[in-house]
Specification:
- This protein has a six-stranded mixed β-sheet, with helices on both faces. The chain has a two-stranded antiparallel sheet with strand order 1-2.
- The protein has helices at 4-22, 24-29, 98-109, 143-157, 203-223, 243-248, 257-271, 292-309, 327-334, 358-366, and strands spanning 41-47, 91-97, 122-133, 176-186, 188-196, 226-234, 238-241, 278-285, 312-318, 347-352.
- It is α/β, with parallel strands linked by helices.
- 35% of the residues lie in helices and 22% in strands.
């Protein structure tokens, strides 16, 4: 039977879930959600929900337990400053698991669960305890089986005294858990994030990319048991960096998008066999590329290598303070059907002019269920 406190807690979680769903578009655009990002939970600020508490202390003054005459107003404070007239907003930080956030995201955006591409399964070795043996390390000693053997031995030898049932195991009574190595199929996914860090991509654009990458990561981790992430930055040259550098690096100069695509292709070739991995590639840029020749090279790399090897290639064009380039139109012209196969488009394009567009961008990327 579920206790009253458990019912209340479940109801509270339902209220929190409902508030997040109602304000999901706002949550998608607020960096507050990243403030305490951890491995399993994030802190989500919820407005207008408060937990009742008891407040202890002396009365502030007035009638009741203190001084005062009949007709005095309770709690009237002195001073010349008038009270405010607007309703206050209560903010409660609630810890929500990444799985819960991903489920809310999927429900609200009506995202289908991703079907792993083909038979892309990785077998991992797991230790499974399957039996008992008479030898082994002390840490694996099975106490119940050990005392059972000791009891059987004393019963067989007549040493067991029911009036004084003391059972003392000896060495030959000891039993230990044994294990076998078993292969457990596991769906694995790789996410490669690529971003233009030339002078036109400012801090606001990077923060937008960071927010979108957070939600991309949350949804893919909900669909796969194992996820690896790699990060590539580029101006006219590309380099692989760690996550912190990816979101903080600021460079100057021109842009050669093909440098990132070529490095991504090399990483896949060296480390990730498409037969074993579900591969997701995302590129973020303001769309301003160096030349038409480089646009053609990008199309070639996509057509010959990156799209065929990946479940999906997502290109997100982020508006810059200096204006947006033409690269998204280059891709639309080169791949009018989105390089579609029997499961739908594999090249998916989105445009984020402001943070509110992250909602529609995420929906565009994952609605095909790839």
């Amino acid at each position: 039977m579920v206790s009253k406190i458990q019912q209340d807690h479940q109801r509270f979680r339902q209220i929190v879930r409902g508030k997040i769903r109602k304000d999901l578009r706002r949550f998608l655009t607020k960096s507050d959600i990243l403030a305490r990002e951890g491995k399993r939970v994030v802190s989500v600020p919820i407005h207008d929900i408060d937990i009742p508490t008891f407040r202890y202390g002396d009365n502030a003054g007035g009638v009741g337990m203190g001084e005062g005459d009949e007709g005095d107003t309770v709690g009237q404070q002195g001073g010349d400053n008038p009270g405010g007239e607007e309703e206050g907003r209560h903010v409660l930080e609630v810890d929500v698991t990444l799985e819960e956030l991903a489920d809310i995201l999927g429900d609200e955006l009506e995202l289908p669960r991703i079907k792993p591409r083909g038979e892309h399964r990785v077998s991992t070795i797991k230790d499974k305890y399957t039996g008992i043996r008479p030898v082994g390390p002390a840490s694996l000693r099975h106490f119940k089986r050990t005392y059972r053997e000791a009891l059987k031995r004393q019963l067989m030898t007549g040493a067991y005294d029911p009036d004084n049932p003391v059972i003392i195991p000896i060495k030959r009574d000891f039993r230990y858990r044994s294990w076998n190595e078993v292969k457990k199929p596991q769906s694995n996914a790789l996410i490669v994030y690529m971003m233009d860090v030339s002078g036109s991509m400012g801090q606001e654009q990077k923060e937008t990319v960071r927010l979108e990458a957070f939600w991309i990561d949350a949804w893919l981790r909900r669909n796969y048991e194992g996820v690896e992430s790699r990060f590539i930055v580029h101006d006219v040259r590309a380099a692989e960096v760690d996550k912190t550098t990816f979101f903080t690096l600021r460079e100057d100069g021109g842009t050669r998008i093909s440098s990132a695509f070529a490095l991504c292709h090399q990483i896949l070739k060296d480390h990730y066999d498409p037969a074993d991995w579900n591969i997701y590639l995302f590129h973020f840029s303001d769309g301003d590329n160096s030349s038409e020749a480089d646009n053609r090279e990008c199309v070639r790399l996509l057509n010959e290598h990156l799209i065929p090897q990946s479940n999906m290639f997502g290109y997100c064009q982020v508006a810059s303070a200096y204006g947006s380039g033409n690269f998204i139109n280059v891709l639309k012209e080169a791949f009018p059907d989105g390089a579609a196969d029997e499961a739908g488009p594999r090249l998916i394009l989105s445009k984020v002019n402001e943070r509110e567009d992250i909602y529609d961008s995420i929906k565009a990327f994952f609605t095909p269920g790839r």
